[in-house]
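G., before I forget:
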Amino acid sequence: MQSILERITSGKFWSFHGGIHPPEQKALTATKAIRTLPLPKQLIVPLQQHIGGEGDLLVNVGDKVLKGQPLTLASNPMALPIHAPTSGIITAIKKSVIAHPSGLSELCLFIDVDGKDTWIKRNKNQDYQQLSSSEIIKKIADAGISGMGGAGFPTHIKTNSAANIDFLIINGAECEPYITADDLLMTEQSQAIVDGINILKQVIAPKNILIAIEDNKPNAIKAMEIATKGLAHIHVCVVPTKYPTGGEKQLIKVLTGKEVPSGSLPINCGIIMQNVATCFAISQAVINDTPLIERVVTVTGQALDTPQNAWVLLGTTIDFLLSQFSAQPLESGKQPVIMGGPMMGFGVLSEQVPIIKTSNCILIPSKQEMPSAFDRQSKEVECIRCGECAVVCPSQLLPQELQWSAKAKDYPQLEKLNLRDCIDCGACAYVCPSQIPLVQYYRIAKAEIRQQQILDIKAEKAKVRFEARKLRLEKEKIAREEKQKKAAAARKAAMNKATPEAANAKSAVAAALARVKAKKAGTTTAAAPESSKSENNVEDNTQKSQVAAAIARAKAKREQKNQTKDRGNNANTTEDKPPQDSAIESTADNTKSVASKPDDKKAKIAAEIAKAKAKKEAKSAPSITQSTDEASTEAPIPATQSDNSQADDKKAKIAAAIAKAKAKKLAKSTQANQSTDLEVTSGNADVDANNTTLTKSEKKAAIKPSHEPNISDNIGSSNTDPSNTDSSNKTQNQADDKKAKIAAAIAKAKAKKLAKSANENTSNNANNNTQKELT
Amino acid sequence: MSILIAIAVVGVIAALFGALLGFASIRFKVEADPIVDQLDALLPQTQCGQCGYPGCKPYAQAVADGEAINKCAPGGEDTIKKIADLMGVEVQPLDESHEQDNRPKVAFIIEEDCIGCTKCIQACPVDAIIGAAKQMHTIIIDECTGCDLCVAPCPVDCIEMRVIPETTQNWQWDINSIPVKQID
Amino acid sequence: MAFWIASSPHNHIQSETSQLMRHVIYAAIPGIFAQWYFFGWGNLIHIGLAILTALLCEFTILALRNKPISKELFDGSAILTAVLLGICLPALAPWWITVIGVIFAIGIAKQLYGGLGHNPFNPAMTGYVVLLISFPLQMTTWQPPLSLLNIELNLSNTLSAIFTGFTLEGYSVEQIRTGIDGITMATPLDTLKTNTTLGLTVYESMTANVFGDNFALGWEWINAGFVIGGIYLIIKKMIPWQTPVSFLAGIFICSFIAYSINPDSSPSTMFHWLSGATMIGAFFILTDPVTGATSIKGRIIVGLLAGLLVYLIRTFGGYPDGVAFAILLCNMAAPLIDQYTRPRTYGHTKG
């Protein structure tokens, strides 16, 4: 390690493979001081602004909040609280577009700023040396600090590690072009950053502290060197400018010559890295008791009038920022707005996107400086294997081979090519002459691989649960059988014993049986199952009726669905009608001729089918609209009546049963209809090709009319019968009750029968079709 | 005579090698993963029964016995492709009797409508529904495989299959949405 | 206001494949100029004809494959293939040689394999080799430099010779090739090969006038022209320097060993470097990224291998020049070489 330090102090560094030098454009903002902005009218604060979970809400709509007041409470270690960036009133808690490449909406707090900027009571503590490590970590966690360089990992977790740390690296490299937020922060707040570093030192106790700054930031380097003068353990390292030096693994390689093993964390090599902005936030949190509510944001790009760094409250919308930095509004849909730098940032979808803890830059480029950001269509052409991407890759991957495997979705091969070591830096896509969006392909592949892993785990879990359930059911079954066997054996034994006791028992059993029988006989007249229930209180009844109502409701719902389906079907049938009509005669002839033939069985079948079809048709046509109405109106009535008396309750049940029966019928018929219609159409389609199929389909349709009135009568009666009995039931006679039940049962049975015939029919049809085609 | 010797020599050699091979096949026998287990590992384990078999393992058994490979609706094209690779048969399009909507779904109980009949609990192949008789039931979303076996038994139709909503956690970079996605 | 989602990086170096191809074509100009100066209009006519055929062929196949024609037709790759093939042909070869060669190069060697980026073999060299094997007579009737001709070969004469086989005055190509002394002239490489088999030493053969004052009359300047173009490309970072350097080093090593063992039957390294298609092969063909190795180590191996093969074919093979064959053989080996020269990924141990 001594040699590493020697190298560092003599200004020599290692270098990582690849890297690029995109136009820096830092001069746009590097020379201007950090600006303070007026308070915006409204803040949109997302609940989650980092990697990890969101906290639990502490406030409600309408609450007045003070600046720095916690708005959520972290409920698990990975969660972080958020704080009110200024005082105001919470006007809404709803989903809003957040700062995420997906442009999805997440839960956000909308705060109307009152303009007073009143602080919550703070407990400033200059003497942080007195605090214990756990106290400091608690303060960091309570301040809601996450890594401010980009990824947003909760800082207190990174800090809270007992491992033996050789190097604490403070990352001020800021290798992304355009961004100067850390540069300016180091220049202006070097003392506070050093305080933050000292606090970290107290917690982590590293052997060495390195502050890495790229050599294109002379002001920051000077400021930090002055601030660390006399602190022997802190070394300011001026590293050569190259993108992506600021990447965690790359910076470690540059400073220490070590490589973090794949799949491992720097902490396992005795290294912890923190961003300078994070250090500043830590010193604010520990010394000034100020939670993370604002940060330096570089608002830059040549499309702006006055690009500059600014202190921006978290939750400030891009809209507000643009109004502060540009005189004229941007052209909608024509101007890319990038959050983050040009290499790794993402395009934001709406001007309502708020600044969050990880947003370090808002980039509004002009078309001259960044033409590719304006390309809406991919300019991708074929890869010519030039190998430029492999030359610049800081992870020494083979981007072009990865690209082929990613396009071919060859995930095992991607694993073999170490896709997971890709850091998404974008260097490969930057240099690609074929303009292939390489990073894009890798992201998709990575997401797919992750998804697949999750699915695999889930499948494994489901399998285990399924097996466990099967085992359980098996066990229960065996146990049940065992029990039954035992009970039977016991009974038998008792019966077979010839002792008087046994006789007694026997007679007792007999008596019990007789009693049961008698009861049954008694109750059958009194509507058996209900008799016992009649003793139940009214509440139970209402419950039951509610259940019935629910069922009825569901039925109604189903029916409605069917109806809508049916409408479509009806349209079909009307379309099909003309050819059917014209073919009636021919089919009549045909049936005759078929009948005269030896295989009159077939003819019979055909006739049956036709009959059934007609039935179905007739049924579906008139009754659907009526019965749905009935069902839906009937359902609530019993529910209300049932509160009054038992009889009413029963009635309700009957009504429900009827409704059920009707619904079932309808559902079945419509289903059947659907399938028949399909067949008819298919039959018609076959017309030209095959004569036999033609006659078949026509026959089916043709015989319908003759049967129609009959069936509709039938249905009419089955519909009206139960309702009649229903009304007559009001005498509260038990016999009537029975009748009603019978009626209902009849209705049900009818429905079932119809349904069955419909089903049979369809299957018959199918059979018949195949038969005919064979002949 | 020399012919006879030649035949004898070749015969002896053949017998020797045969014996050697036979011995090797017994002595160095490798316990291969039975094909059924391999197939089972490819199936999505939703236990949905849409293939017509009571679970994934039985279907795996059936495929091993020559059943069509295109009956697994939750697995979709990917699974069919993998099975085809494993079985060395042609890839077939998904059985037409299945719905084409293959987005991942989970069951959802509309709780105000639930009457507590426990029918869905009995239908669930992975015990992902909790509840008791006359008590409202609910789905453990993390355990639900989206097999929709609980939908049919419900007497009050209070179970729906809902598409898992897209969140920032499960959102995926989508090549199609990237350059063109636009919201007004 | 609405914006749009775009995947990072948002900035781009703004280089394009077609730009790369264009630069390679520009870089070939000095060599082509030298060729014109020493051998007349023949190759220019072939290049023009080749470009025309290549575009037509590419257009037809792109249309058949339902590819975006405007985008891919002018990406420069087809034109570059045509230019390279045109350069390689004997100046007075009949016109149909060019047409057949280009059709094979574009239609079969490139598009049938999937178009740009998917062809395993360099299309120009594939076309050349097909011609060499199928039409050995036409492909070896090299015309001597203009200064050695006793017939004046102007533009119209050359055109006529290429399209009819005879100049306007009625001389056949064979008659053109016949020198003042009545001996049919060949390329320096050819001559050397023939002479060494006849038992003459290299030094003795070098007295023949095809060799000129230095190594190979005309050819040395053409090769120098391609070197200039190649250096331009390397400076512009259009081609990697490793490939040509290792290729030339490969030739140097082989010829140096042979020369030090037996100087009588082995020509010098400079002769190898500056005759035949060495330089165009080194800077323009072997550096074709599509068919070469992608890793730096791989490129060095490919270059050395090609150098060795060129030397072996020139010395022991049946053909006087072996650049085309060597390059095709290296194309075959490139994927394997790539496979074994994968770099060590960051954070991984070797192996």
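Chain A touches chain C through 77 residues (CB under 8 Å). Chain A has a mean pLDDT of 75.

More on Monday.
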